[in-house]
Amino acid sequence: STVRLDIQSAWPLTLPASGQSAQHLADRLKATSKDIRVKLYSAGKLVSPLEIFDAVQQGTLDAGYTSPLYVAGRFPALQLFGGVPFGPSALEYLDWIYNGGGLKIWRDIYAKQGVMTVPCGLMDSEAGGWYNFEINTPSDLKGKKIRFAGLAGEVMKKAGASVVLLGSGDIYPNLERGVIDGTEFSMPAIDAAMGFEKVAKYYYLPGWHQPAAINELIINKRKWDSMSAAQQDLIEDTCRETQLWTISSTTIANAEAIKKFKAAGTKIKSFPPAVLAAFKKSTDEVMSEEASKDADFKRTLDSLNSYRKKVSLWTEYKGN
Amino acid sequence: MSELFVFLLFSIFMLILFSGFPVAFILGGVGVLFATLGSILVSFNIYDVAELRTIGFVANRTFSTISSYSLIPMSMFIFMGFMLDRSGIAERLIGAMRRVLGKTPGGLAIAVVLIGVVLAASTGIIGASVVLLSTIALPTMFKAGYAKWISAGTVGATGCLGILVPPSIMLVVMGDQLRIPVGDLFMGAIIPGLLLATSFVVFIFIYALLKPANMPKLVLDEESNISKFDIILDISKALFAPLLLVLTVLGSIIAGVASPTEASGIGAAGATFLAWSSGRLKWLDLRIVCYQTGRSVAFLYALIFGASCFSVVLRGYGGDEVIENALHALPLSPEGVLFCVIFIIFLLGFFLDWMEIVLIVAPLVMPILVNFGFNPVWVAILMALCLQTSFLTPPVGMALFYIRSAASNISMAEIYKGAIPFVMLQLLTLTIVALYPSLVTWLPN
Amino acid sequence: MRCVNSIVKKIEALSVAIGKTGSLILPILIITILINVILRYVFNIGLVELEEVQWHLNAIVVMSCLAYTYQVDEHIRVDIFHCRFSPKRRAWVEILGILFLFFPYIILVSWHAWEMASYSWSLREGSPMPSGLPARYLIKGFMALGLSLLALQGVAILLHNVAFLIQPNSTSTPSTPVNKGTHHE
Ligand code: NA
Ligand code: NA
Q1: Looking at residue C84, what DSSP letter applies?
Q2: B80 within some domain
Q3: Residue A67 CA, distance from chain mean position
């Protein structure tokens, strides 16, 4: 029988990679299915992005297109599905999710809350961020105010930076007025929409804090169970197709964005090896601290690490 | 189908509005009634409606609203307004001003406008300014022989300046709803606000020259032997404290030193200090200011909660698409659509409060206008200018009610008549700002 | 009738007490903001906790004053006709409004709010921000409480108006005809 699926995206539907992927998913489902009637809402139309999970959990909303990072405060382990500092590359990430047991853990954590998740949108590497100072040694970060989120934010704290959290609309004015000295945001194509090149001198590439990330379609479990196997399969397949669509949707736009930044006088830099080594060391500390606090985090981290170890012979030989 | 339901939703709301039941509960209640209707329709296989479960979003949205950092300035600016009201600054100002401007044509009315600007720049609430000016200035104006209607118009329009001139809770709510930095809105509103005040002064001056019978010059008998120096000293003393406060609060927001929340907190503390140092603040006063603020904040938030329920049900019925399609279907240029939107807001302002319009209508039309390439700060300020007229337009003009409640010896008809020239001046200013966007965009850049 | 009156009085006393107590948090909020400002600009310390404390305090003010504001009849009304209605007619407006608009809305939202709070409690939810405040279920619970108190205040106003219609002399006029909007907006 026909099933109706109200989905809200955590991002505006025009935003490259994230919001556009939600639109792509909805368009594909509309084109390929006669018995799934999708209604897609843009960010904030029904609830704020941070409340999508609650609405889906309670069944007020059928489904949400979002990032696992948005519920990291409650389920810390989910941070490892939304992007890992010094983590796997995009393909290796997918590999772990589908073949290395990642998806099972991911679904286990959500199942306890009455929510089903379908990985749905592979995001390319993020940039290292916008700064108004040069980072030549790890100590250059001391006392600087930086906007950073999640695990990477903890890493920056260990480097001596004071980490602030700002809504995406508040970053630009605060960077402009010197309230913050730097910010991590997203990949170049998305950063370009924010106009950061007008208020920051340096753009660091590549980002160490998120080599790849995965968005998800979360669905209320009762809703999911009410669907036929064919409907469920179609959603799973469409999301797999969306993974591919998303990662290949931003390559040209990223390159063009960097060209635009260069033209605007932005200095493109990369982190020196000593700085990266310090970040890596702090990342390992943060990871083991988190693992000691939360059993699910430990289980997820162990799964990811053992998978990476298992495939390392091949990944190292082929050299990415 | 969607069009029909959206039309019904709005018209039933408007109809019940005039019953006099609290607006916040009408908004929420009509939302729930239509969600119930939606659930019934779905059982008859009629879709694209809001269902009862939609009300679950309202709880989430209520939490988002109370946890919003960007709405805290609303509470602080209201507190600041009530506190300044206690400090007796306005009384001292009017005493000083009338001596300076007494001999100028329309001098007393001009003094009221100037005081109104100072009040506007120091509070974000208009009710307080209108009532304050009505109780202090209206009797003085009547005694000096000013026509009642023009006096009421001056007081009403001037008292409303506070909603446009920053700090303004309307701009705080707009910033929150439309995702525009409040600092930018504040800066964008300064020049239009001053332009509006200037137009009031010019109008009063010319009118007093043409019709001196309605605005006679003051007879200042008792003060004829006071030196100019004393007058200047007097007025400086009266102006010093509030101006310092205004400069601190607005200055720190505009210079980017403090966030609007921080600045509003400093303002609230500063106003408390002023009231205390003038010897007018007792423990009881502080408590009364808290109670007043608590109630005002509660009724404003209740409106936000109710409007959020109404809006989410409206979205379920496809309200966004209906409005978007209607605007795109107009055979007009982007400028034409903008004009249409502003005109509709002006018309709605006759019946609705600024809150309902900012909460329900503005988020619907803003994305469409921004997509046309208009500067969002400029569009928001145009809306704000337009909403400001809603305080003065009958039948639902809050400023008019305030005057009526504060001054007993004037009829509603006279108040309405007095509002007309000032509504015209506001529309004139709106037109000027619409023609010259740089009046808004220059300061934020 | 006397029994009804005493129930009404008790509920209203509760609304007023909670509202007045809650609004006295405002000076604490102001002080918190000042401390935050001083820490940031003098000592160069930015604390996420302190910023969260601010909206928590503000939220407590709002939620505790909702019922109180209805008790003193300051929830804004479009009263161009209302102020000319007879006391009886105003009582009817209030009764019908509470039964068909207020109750469906406030009770449904309160119920969802309690669900939110209890789910939050089951997770022992804290702030999603690193180093944010713990125990987010408390503030969610307070939201549900404030809405429930508002519903209760609605019951009091309903009873008061019904009592007035039945025995106009035994109770005071429920809603006062004067325009109370002297210091709003
Ligand atoms: Na103001
Ligand atoms: Na009006």
Answers
A1: G
A2: yes
A3: 6
Model's pTM, two decimal places? 0.86
d(CA A58, CA A56): 5
- The structural domain count of chain B equals 1
Query: Within an 8 Å CB–CB cutoff, is residue A160 touching chain C?
Result: no
Q: Is residue B28 part of a domain?
A: no
- Residue A62 CA to chain centroid, in angstroms? 22
The answer to whether the peptide bond before residue B437 is cis (omega within 30 degrees of 0) is no
Question: Assign residue B145 a region: left if phi > 0, alpha if psi is -120 to 50, beta otherwise?
Answer: left
Complex-level ipTM:
0.89
Q: Which domain holds residue B75?
A: 69-297
Q: Do A60 and B57 touch (CB under 8 A)?
A: yes
d(CA B168, CA B162): 6
Interchain contact, C75 vs B404, CB within 8 Å: no
On whether the CB atoms of residues B297 and C61 are closer than 8 A, the answer is yes
- Give me the residues of C, 24-63, that contact B with CB < 8 A: 24, 26-27, 29-34, 36-37, 40-41, 51, 54-55, 58-59, 61-63
pLDDT in tens, chain C (185 residues): 778 889 999 999 999 999 999 999 999 999 999 998 888 778 767 677 888 899 999 999 999 999 999 999 988 787 778 878 899 999 999 999 999 999 999 999 999 999 999 999 998 888 876 667 888 999 999 999 999 999 999 999 999 999 999 888 766 766 543 334 333 33
Residues in chain C: 185
DSSP category for residue A180: -
Q: Please give the torsion angle defined by the CA atoms of residues C62, C67, C68 and C70, in that order, rounded to the nearest 10 degrees.
A: 110
User: Does residue B370 lie in a domain region?
Assistant: no
Q: Which two tokens stand for residue C131?
A: 């180093």
Secondary structure class of B395 (helix, strand, coil): coil
Please report whether residue B362 resides in a domain: no
φ, ψ for residue A46, nearest 5 deg = -110, -55
Contacts of A176 in chain B (CB under 8 A): 256
